[in-house]
Design brief:
Layout: H1 2-8, H2 14-25, E1 34-38, E2 41-45, E3 53-54, E4 61-62, E5 78-79, H3 99-106, H4 117-127, H5 147-153, H6 176-185, H7 200-217, H8 224-245, H9 248-271, H10 281-297, H11 301-318, H12 326-345, H13 353-365, H14 385-390, H15 395-400, H16 415-419, H17 423-444, H18 453-468, H19 486-512, H20 520-536, H21 545-555, H22 561-578, H23 581-598, H24 607-618
Antiparallel strand pairs: 1-2, 2-3, 4-5
Helix pairs in contact: 4-6, 6-7, 6-8, 7-8, 8-9, 8-10, 8-22, 9-10, 10-11, 10-12, 11-12, 11-13, 12-17, 17-18, 17-19, 18-19, 19-20, 19-21, 20-21, 20-22, 22-23
Length: 619
């Protein structure tokens, strides 16, 4: 009998099961007594009672509600017992929620808060007051926590546990709904300039956070990956709110959530490669990417570097050999997009101890051959760039060339859909980064095999020619023509133009070290694109890397005081609207570069020099 129960029990989550029950009960009067039975489960609805009991065999496999976002191709059921469900678990912090919020829970059928978490939480979030009329200057200043370095240098002898003691409920954050609403309405616009609802944040990150909230409200246990992503999301939103409202309370709350996210991240990374796996692939990768976003938005470049490397290691060792669902590919695209812009500026750290550690770990795992690209940012030895860029890449090369090492066309790319930027433009950025790495290696004379002078010059000329011939694609070709308003299309077009000009500026500075006076026309063009976006929609900062990167690259080369002032004002305004210190800190870095140039008495000082010096001092 028990064996029959095990084989009969479908691996459905509590959330899906209760959703089915709700669908059956939609047209039944509340006064009716109804008995519903699903296989080995006996489910009863008792009129005028808030107590709902769901029982199951003690050894029945089920999947956590948070894992509903996982695809059917990624199945690894977590064994647990479905407990007696208290519709209002005694979770500390819930009693402090507003009466309106509690009433919204009580008004749901049977008082159940997880029967359909996305729809119900959307309703709850709509009822939570949200007033952003107090937006003001940002004030989010974070110091480096050196989380990843601490993990390598001081690994605990055994993984610490953040699981509550038996009978103790995990505190449900009382401001979680408010923070998730701010994240959905404001923070997402900082990550992508597109306005459709198919971005990774709409279909992965936000539903994941809502499911975590519903599971916590039910008193369920969550793994460290889910908790890391959840608290990291709350921290990002709290810092944003603290910045725009100049509220120290929100900043303190952001620090509190960030510490919780870091602790869960530390344990998650220690166990991410164990068998059986403690969490699903997408859950772990989402958690790492959440920490990347949090580190980037708070201006903590060192922690961002650490989490980028952890993401690379995890993808290369766990993600490239698998058949990739659309959701997995969305996450991979999010990683690569942000990594390219990080790599373009984080100069001088190519041979850091942490990077060497990551490369050795991947090589020793035997999984390095799954990567089409090399494990270091060295240049792929193409011959005719124009022909190579027209070459059609197959699925394996398109998906497993993680850092866009090889030129070519890949029809299934998702960069235009997510970020509004063509993949060939990112490939060009990758090639400039790699050519710059070859140049640094030759200058350092580190005895590593590299390009000879003839090859370096020919490849530089080919890249220069291709960059200067770039044409802006229209939004119809990028797949946005039917989804975007005229204002949004105008913003995307100006972002692309700013990116095109910034690619050229970056090339001339990084490869040729061209004098800044010869770049001023392109600098002004980037500034004008930013102002055009400002005039089109001054209510929000669109995109992160898509705007902040060209603004940084161009501003660093600006020489006219009025142009410098306009860049400084743009960063200040972006900091005020976003509440995130990354804009304010970038502005401070640019102004420091301008001052260094003024104090140099005519000698050449560039942001590349200062970045190399900064990275070398940290190693």
């Amino acid at each position: 009998m028990s064996q029959w129960l095990i084989t009969s029990a479908p691996p459905k989550s509590t959330q899906r099961l209760l959703s089915q029950i709700d669908e059956q009960c939609e047209n039944i009067a509340a006064s009716d007594e109804v008995e519903l039975t699903y296989g080995p489960f006996g489910v009863f609805r008792v009129p005028l009672s808030l107590n709902v009991q769901i029982t199951s065999p003690s050894n029945c496999d089920r999947t956590s509600p948070v894992e509903e976002i996982e695809d059917a191709t990624d199945t690894s059921p977590q064994t647990d017992i479905v407990p007696m469900i208290d519709p209002f678990p005694a979770v500390s912090g819930m009693a402090q929620w507003s009466p309106d919020f509690m009433q919204s829970l009580l008004s749901q059928p049977d008082g159940d808060i997880s029967s359909a978490s996305p729809d119900l939480l959307d309703l709850i979030m709509d009822q939570v007051p949200f007033d952003d009329t107090t937006l003001a200057q940002p004030n989010c200043q974070l110091t480096s926590t050196s989380l990843i370095s601490d993990l390598y240098c001081n690994p605990p002898t055994s993984p610490p546990s953040l699981t509550p003691a038996p009978g103790e409920a995990r505190a449900l954050p009382q401001d979680a709904v408010f923070l998730l609403k701010h994240y959905s309405s404001t923070v997402i616009s900082l990550m992508t300039p597109v306005r459709h609802k198919k971005t990774p944040w709409h279909i992965l990150f936000i539903p994941h956070a809502k499911d975590c909230l519903a599971a916590l409200a039910m008193g369920e246990e969550l793994n460290h990956a889910n908790l890391c992503a959840f608290y990291g999301t709350l921290a990002t939103s709290a810092f944003s709110l603290g910045g725009v409202s100049r509220s120290q309370t929100w900043l303190d709350q952001g620090h509190s959530y960030m510490r919780q996210a870091q602790e869960h991240a530390k344990i998650m990374l220690m166990t991410a490669y164990t068998i059986p796996k403690p969490a699903k692939y997408k859950s772990i990768l989402m958690a790492i990417l959440t920490m990347v976003q949090l580190s980037n938005f708070c201006g903590n470049r060192n922690d961002a570097e650490g989490f980028f490397l952890e993401a690379e290691k995890f993808i290369r060792m766990k993600g490239l050999r698998r058949r990739k669902s659309r959701k997995v590919r969305l996450l991979h695209h999010c990683y690569v997009f942000e990594r390219m812009f990080h790599e373009s500026i984080f100069i001088g750290g190519a041979n850091s101890n942490q990077r060497r550690h990551i490369r050795r770990a991947i090589e020793s795992s035997g999984l390095a051959p799954a990567s089409v690209d090399s494990l270091s940012f060295r240049l792929y030895k193409w011959k005719n760039l124009h022909q190579e860029m027209l070459r059609v890449r197959d699925r394996e090369e398109g998906e497993n060339d993680l850092h866009l090492e090889r030129p070519g066309m890949f029809s299934a790319t998702l960069y235009p859909e997510i970020f509004g930027i063509p993949e060939p433009w990112l490939i060009l950025l990758s090639m400039i980064i790699r050519l710059g790495t070859e140049k640094d290696a030759a200058e350092q004379q580190n005895n590593q095999p590299g390009l000879n002078l003839k090859d370096f010059i020919s490849r530089s000329k080919a890249l220069e020619d291709y960059i200067n011939r770039l044409e802006r694609p229209n939004q119809v070709n990028l797949g946005h023509g039917t989804h975007q308003s005229s204002v949004d299309q105008h913003i995307l077009e100006n972002m692309l133009e700013a990116m095109r000009q910034a690619l050229a500026i970056y090339f001339y500075r990084r490869i040729y070290d061209l004098d800044a006076s010869m770049l001023q026309k392109k600098v002004v063009d980037v500034r004008d694109c930013l102002l055009q976006c400002e005039y089109a929609d001054s209510s929000v900062v669109h995109g992160s890397a898509g705007f902040i990167w060209p603004a940084f690259i161009a501003a660093c080369e600006a020489e006219d005081p009025k142009v410098q002032e306009s860049f400084s004002a743009w960063f200040q305004m972006s900091a005020q609207r976003s509440g995130l210190s990354s804009f304010a800190q970038t502005r401070a870095s640019i102004e420091k570069i301008w001052q260094e140039k003024r104090d140099a008495n005519g000698s050449s000082v560039t942001w590349v020099d200062l970045m190399k010096k900064s990275v070398s001092l940290q190693q």
